Amino acid sequence: MSAAAAVLAAGALAGTVAVALGAAWLGGSYVVAAVVVTLVAVFAYGWPRVLSLPDPWHLTWLIFGAGAAATLAALLTGLPSPMQWMPICLGVGVLGVFGAQLLRGTGAERRLASTMAGLFGLVVATFASGWVGVVGFGPLGASALVTWVGGGAAALATVITLVLARRRLPAGGLTAAIALGAAPILASGTVLYFAQRLILQ
């Protein structure tokens, strides 16, 4: 897949994800949580492979585990503090990444790259739980429009960034497009949550 095609695919995916999250908002917290966990699974699989990291499966499971746990915690906790468990899930994931690299040994290939990729992936995956928190504001006056606007802005930012950096994109084909397209939308969940919380206060 060429860089231009990857940009188009990632942009289309980003837009689709934004629309899906906005539509899922209408179905309530459980539907949004299911969409988020699915997207986290896709991102967790694709991200280590975009970077062609050796032994990508341990990062995939760590990223997915932390993201799914944070999303489930946000779903079950609810207002007034649905995000209180997110930093804990992130912290446990960070310990897991460092522990995994220690187990790989000092001579393991690309340990630093694997560590940095794992940390970035954990931030994206755990921040995705913010989308569940956003839905919780519905009874307080928030609307699906906020989700669509926030997701649309993140999708637009994704496309602009990918267009500007298209010549530096890693060669990962469809997997790269999926991971790169989903990452900004997922990570914007927590940002949108706190922005909406400030607006409603």
Automatic annotation (TrEMBL):
Keyword Ribosomal protein tagged: no
Record keyword 4Fe-4S present: no
Chain segments annotated as transmembrane: 30-47, 59-79, 85-103, 115-134, 140-164, 171-195
Keywords, alphabetical: Membrane, Transmembrane, Transmembrane helix
The name this protein goes by in its record: Permease
Native source species: Zhihengliuella flava
